[in-house]
């Protein structure tokens, strides 16, 4: 084996540890230092070795390190050594990923960092004289030229001389960056026949479940019973439009994932079809994928049977990657962080399972090291794919995923994707041009989120950003530095062969200028009365609204400002404001009419363009080869989805405004129309997006129509399908709970009643958990709230998840407690503060026993942290529904005349989800704390049976938390 390459001379190492910092000095001495001392000494030291340089700089209160990072960041070296392997960005996380002994990771000091570096450099050295080593050598050579701090050490590990040329015969560095030339090509296969309809019995499902979990596994009667009921979703349906819908509530710990996988796997193999498993959160997608290793232990076999599907915008686009690489190489500059990042992406792309940039096997901390802009620039940006015209079409990772899904047994997707796919199948009629075969069997995990997902999937948004994005998609970049391709450029290969499409294309592009032009947001802001009154514009300086869409946006903006500014429910409390559409001023009515006419002038040539492309598939059949036919079909699909469906929806919404009057009092509306203004990412201060929004009053109606009714079987499952109010234990109360569950899942819109089943959690919550309501913390005092979180987190010794209903309060609490917790040896991380994805933050918590994490809704649902790493969940206040216009209308029309009960149900279900994060196995022990003294007793039925919720002051609760978590064994009757 080659000798282990040297590290840079006298490289110090810095590691946060026990509230101070563990420092390996240039002299080889291990010291405990405070942040001010490190800041003072750092300029005199050689380049330090760290883990996650941007986070270290933030914790030392230093400016962000420049790019490329001058420090030796072990995460960058890990990304080079172990491409497509995620790891928590901590010393313990890296050590576990590299297989170091567990005792070395219990209390790591700074001297562990050189050992981690030597281990990784040794692995790199072992690749020398292999084909993989040749590619890595070429990339490392290029990265060293670009200023990569690890470049000299990695090049030495691969046998490259300092600043010398590459050895003859190795791939050239520029070619090594062109990963698309080395990726496998997908091959077309015959269309998969429609699946058969052989049923799966409950007994078969139970037997297969026992095979999956294996001999000696824990016997879970509820899991087997759940699997038996889940099999009923795979019974052949008797009537079109009348699927078998099963509502199965399975408490935490039931083992529902493998419970429904067992019948799904039998059905898929027996009938030659795919079962789509849909989730709401990425956390659960990852969890399901990992659980399926029990079904298919061999990764290669699992890859052929199981596919994870996400929206196109999550995947690497090889054409965008090529353009980014060419731009970086044309600069040819040393110190080019973009080129270093692209080299690591090229290495990752050659090893990734599916090419998912966000939430896949590219580590979540990568964007923090090299900038999120790098990843968004190489992602498959929505609507820009040119499909068969792309030179990398047959290497395309999205196309690989689509084709694997066509032959897979199990497809793991998310609610948004499956609903949009179902909607497009319904729109296309035959579904012949769609990316995926129409599934006949769905499993909707996290089923309590169906209404939320449908609300987003089937809503309409006519906003400045959405309309401007459509203009950019049609016209391309207009004078700005952008690689955005317009529709003409995407169709230019078709224009040469089908000249009759040029006229409608040009007409559509001319009509697209009715959409917001670049600079629209600043022009609207400058026309606000407060800005106009502040100064007198010079002659010719007055902003001009250049098209009818900007005129409508201006009218919408003025209505929001007029009806919300300064009001208790308006803009001053939040960065967003909303108001009712009606009553509508005449100027807004006129602007809506003008824009509707302009949009219809855009829709007409687009429809003609689609018609002529469709005709070409038939009339030009004699010369069209397969790639060209695919190219035309993709163009038709893209125009329909990206432009026509949106414009048609906008026209329908604007057309309904022509009556200029609200719905009649007492009438139940089908839609909720309102105006909203908010600040979006990338907008300057003072500029806010504004738009007209349309939501279904009951979003489960389109869900049932486009997804559930065409299917043959749908299993909806969750730990929180029903809300048991605790008001009484009568049959009527239980029936109301199930009726509400059917309403939230869309089952009430199907011909036959749903099959209902409920399975309790197997945990002994009375012994394993405690719950407290804090009675002496002022909910509106940030200092008091921060002090409460600090006290509770210290009482538990970390391992704590703090949940918030508002991002602003989360950030304020984080700012106040991060330093005291760090000094106590409890590292604190926070969603919306740390620039890492949620999955990485959860991975950190899993790997660090004493870590604390602050989060919002996404951390409340679907997070799985078993064991001692999570032993306290603290919620800042009752999670009431947000009192916006959507909720106002739904509680009026969908509450059955009991709006208060409607609000309570939502709050209880959210509390149940939050409590569900706490106990994930029979060995777990944990405490749930709600810091809202105003919590009504009627909400306490949200907690599992056996959990006695006690109201205590903060100090008394802290003492009990410490005593409970430190006790080795405590029975329920010891509770006092």
From TrEMBL:
The UniProt record lists the keyword Protein biosynthesis: no
GO biological process: nucleobase-containing compound metabolic process
GO molecular function, one term: nucleic acid binding
Domain of life: Bacteria
Domain Helicase ATP-binding: 209-494
PROSITE patterns: HELICASE_ATP_BIND_2
Record keyword Transferase present: no
InterPro entries hit by this protein: ATP-dep_Helicase_C (IPR006555), DinG/Rad3-like (IPR045028), Helic_SF1/SF2_ATP-bd_DinG/Rad3 (IPR014013), P-loop_NTPase (IPR027417)
Keywords: ATP-binding, Helicase, Hydrolase, Nucleotide-binding
Cited Pfam families: Helicase_C_2 (PF13307)
Protein family membership: Belongs to the helicase family. DinG subfamily.
Protein name: ATP-dependent DNA helicase
